[in-house]
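Support request, please re-run this one:
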Amino acid sequence: MLTSKITIYNVGIYIRLSREDDDKVMMSESITNQKSLLLQYVKENNLRVYDIYIDDGYSGTNFDRPDFNRLLNDIELGKVNMVITKDMSRLGRDYIGTGNLIEKYFPEHNVRYIAVTDNIDTFLDSSNNDIAPFKAIMNDMYAKDISKKIKSSLRAKQKEGKFVGGRTPFGYIQDPEDKNHLVINEEQASVVKRIFDMCLEGLSFYKIAKQLTHEGIKTPAQYYSFEWKNNYNLKYGQWHSKTIRDILTNQIYIGDMVQNRRSKVNYKIKKVIRNNPKDYIIVENTHEPIINKEKFYEVQKRIPKNVGRNEKKENHLLDGLLYCGDCGHRISIQARRKKDNRCYTICNYYRTYMKQKLCTTHSNNYEKLEKVIINSLTNMCLSYVNKDKVKNNVLNNLTEENKFNNKKELETLTNDIKQINDNLDIIYIDKLNKKITEEQFERIKVKLELELNIKQKRYNELNNDIKDTISEESKNKLINEYINKFISMKEPSRELIINLIDKIEIFEDKTINIKVSFADNI
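Re-run finished. Output below.
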């Protein structure tokens, strides 16, 4: 039965210091100062210390702290019936969690709580106890403000192209002389290069992963084993399709810094969510590339053609290229039938919603279909053997003058965007320092963000235009080589086919629409 008339107290002294709090003195000194103050208080009040609990480097918004949990366990076992901290913020900075401890948990376990410098003692009838909830809210607001400042500082570094992540991307390490700069890890980079080459050879994500696993190539999880506990990839060295895709689509490998891909829900919750790609912070040419841009963007074209082919026992020349012309979904190639030893195509949407009849089978004898498509492609290539004609049909060219003007405009936009972001940081700091009112802050913020969105949109448009024409000459040359090679071969390779064909649409009436990379559709 609970009683407030306790004559013998077993004191649990709790001390906490977070990295955010420790901006003026050394951690050890701050811990020492708290300990000295609390021991002096215990001595002056003739109290008996059961144990001292110290969490060094833990945020007050997180109550999952090693020694704090040990303190709660000792309370549950009846070993501690008084908790003393320097102030309420040492107990915690989340007003909900702190309030729950003071208003519910401690009273339920007949524990007396004292915050020395806040003059709070839960066993006394004092006005200081009445304002404890307000102090908890102020402590929470302080934690929120600190979180905003840290986030703002990190965001500013990200916009400057400085690396601020906890774990470097596979293929890179932090520069020993500058932790915000990436340098190539040659051992890992060789694996990255090989993955890109294997994709260009026409291998699916699954095939690449299977080959690397078979050869015993170390996975990213094995390199970062200090962070990956109970990880299947770490234990067995197993590469997976998702890992391959993540590497092949990461712009970091062409020398561009890509950050803000993920973020925490808020300053109290550790849960991390994936951000929308439009919110990524991308700064170009910040470090040495592992993959050149021509190869990277060529791989991006291949990726849609290499999905959906993971574990097929039999690979086909047109895998991943077939689409339903009526519903737009993929058409797959079924396993070879035993009765006639033939393969047939089927619309995936029809197969999934067969009972609802949302589409039709689009069934075709695959061998015959492949012959028709290869013959059509051959005729198309023959009509484009003339290199001048190929050159005029490959891509929309930008004149050198336009390219120069676009690059100059990009430079101007880059400076403008940086200036606007700097101004946003300045007005935020001015608001915190109460140099401007909340109303003034909101008015200036809206104006700056509107201007930023306009310039950012124009920047993205120009940047995409330049990227699309980065290797125009080399692409023309490559396509000519592919066409000549294709015409001279009796049995074209998968690599050649996916270089020449973007997409094949098959309609229910057997009409075939072949979208090629070098001309109008067949």
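Confidence is low (pLDDT under 50) at residues 22-28, 394-398. The radius of gyration is 32 Å.
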